[in-house]
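<purpose> Linking amino acid order to shape
<body> The protein record starts here
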Amino acid sequence: MRPAHKKTPRPKPPRPTRDAEAPTEKDLELTYGLRAGIALVAARPSDVVKIAYARELERELGAVLRVVETRGLRAVVMSDAELSRISGSSHHEGLCVAARPRSWLPAAKLADLLVEKRGAAIALDRVRNPYNVGAILRGAAFFGVDAALLGAPAPHPALAPDAIRVAEGGVEHLALSRTTDLADTLARLRSRGARVYGADGSARESAIGFAFERPAILVVGHEREGLSPRVRAECDHVIAIPGSGAVESLNVAVATGILVSELVRER
């Protein structure tokens, strides 16, 4: 009898490893809104992973689709209902972009940026309404402000998708930083030479025609409570927009637009 042939065990194929550069679905940030999505693709094409869009926007999205095609990314046509489902909003405006998370500057890097450029930044002290946040960032980008610093208690403040949409692409033109202790961060920025200007409707100094020194940080406060006492204590000056007295105050986003126009006036 011939001896049975002993089979050599076949080596198991190596277990596939996940590419460190390929983020999982949960790692991605979803941006929706036409101008916000177009700006993201233009500013951070290497971060884009896939897009979904309404067919009627195909011509308007020509540049976006060319980027997607060049990079071999996924572009999916979806109905209005499908876009609402994946974005969680009826305000998607026909475009959703899934991308790697945006980068945030540490306070030290923000200080470097402002000192090097003799630049200007806005800081938000517990401003929570995403529509206000978005409008403020849109105005800051419009006037050429260099950076925005978001301050709120832990967990770390981030940008709500509606804020990004309302900013109409403005967030892609600002260096972004965030902190859970705005007063402490402002103190560190002051130690690097930045001047801090707080906005308060009851302040005696007028913001109109005010001579801002650079690098400058303009701080606006919570929609109802204004500046916190600790943040106010870190301000070199506290300024106000004079009005007729017919109404008590301006919406924080409207007020910030006026203040920022004064901040950059001499630049």
